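Section 5: illustrative case.
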């Protein structure tokens, strides 16, 4: 089962993240943007020419990996 919410990182900053079987990873804009490449296509099966890939690229400037000062900031970022 997936559990979503603000999670504190080892450096004390906060990300909005998903936890599954003890594995925690940032989601939404709290996840650093990666260009869609062959590895992403192989992982998801979604070809790079699909509309959702181009739509996501339009918002890549909002993605970040530097965390937030508080849990509330991380939740607001996901909203």
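Designed sequence:
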């Amino acid at each position: 089962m997936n559990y979503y919410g603000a999670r504190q990182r080892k450096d004390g900053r906060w990300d909005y993240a998903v936890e599954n079987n003890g594995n925690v990873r940032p989601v939404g804009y709290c996840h650093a943007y990666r260009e869609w490449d062959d590895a992403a296509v192989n992982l998801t099966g979604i070809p790079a020419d699909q509309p959702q890939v181009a739509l996501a690229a339009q918002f890549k400037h909002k993605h970040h990996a530097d965390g937030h000062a508080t849990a509330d900031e991380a939740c607001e970022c996901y909203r």
